[in-house]
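Hi P.,

Sorry for the delay on this. The queue was packed all week, but I finally got your sequence through. Input first:
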Amino acid sequence: MHHRSSGHSRFTPGPRVDSQTGSIFLATRSIAFAGDRIVLASKIGMRKVEGAQIPATVYQVLSLDAQTGKVKDSREILAFASLQVFATNDAHVIVSGRSVMRLTPDLQDAGSFDYHHRGHKSGNVENISPDGSTLGNATSPGFELIDSHTLSAKTLTEQPIVIASVSSKAVVSDSPWWIKDYPEAKSFVTLTDEKGQHLIFHGDCGGRPVFLSDDRVLASACKIARILDTHGNILKEITLDDPVSFAGVSQDGKRFALQVATYSSDHSIKRERFVIYSVDKGDSIAEVAPPQLPEAQSWTAFSPDGSLFVVGSPLKLTLYRLP
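Then the structure:
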């Protein structure tokens, strides 16, 4: 399929249980580019699992041709909560649910990570670094970084920590540990690396921080987004007329997206748009508005070089070629 500059194409993977766009957190963890494919995880039902007290959620993982939108491969995977999809930097995907699986673009097994192998009672892989090289695993207590190629892990900290985002060498959190030092502040961003914990932001509104690269952090909430360096210097402030939330970053570290939403009096979304920005300067590059409104936030993902941006849900996806 030919794409004109800043044009778009629409394709529908197939009917699903629901649009599954009710979680801002999962909006950036449900779809990913892998080589010439787009991989998504769609909830399709529930199933009893032998030996488990609660039923498992059944997800259908689809691999679509990124140019035509046609379904090329499909497989079912069970999860006891959500199933999350992450793009690695070697054209594979990580699927995290009951276990952590590394899959090829055509959904073949290419490795797995055993939570219990390193002696942990539990694990929780919910983040990948912006460059696609490193996964984060909360080990309760503590945290470890996992190589997305080999799935080998190394401990970052053994201290209790609440994670919001991971880079290839650090994590950031929005936990209010510092409230005793700054009682007037309502939001905090803490960076934890091999040297320890560092407060890099405190203020009235910061939201859930995310890494844009190893040395850039985005704090976006309310109607403002701030790009910080890892020392806490504010490099750029972006102010909008409506509430904002993070909507993805390209693996090359050059572009990121914000969802900008207008709400009705009943708190439902009446307008959604995504603004694409330069990580380096914080300048606006493009703006897209999906044809269907989400419950909370439409699914989004960048291609590794930031030239393509997919938006939507299992019911309908729109692929945009950015200028």
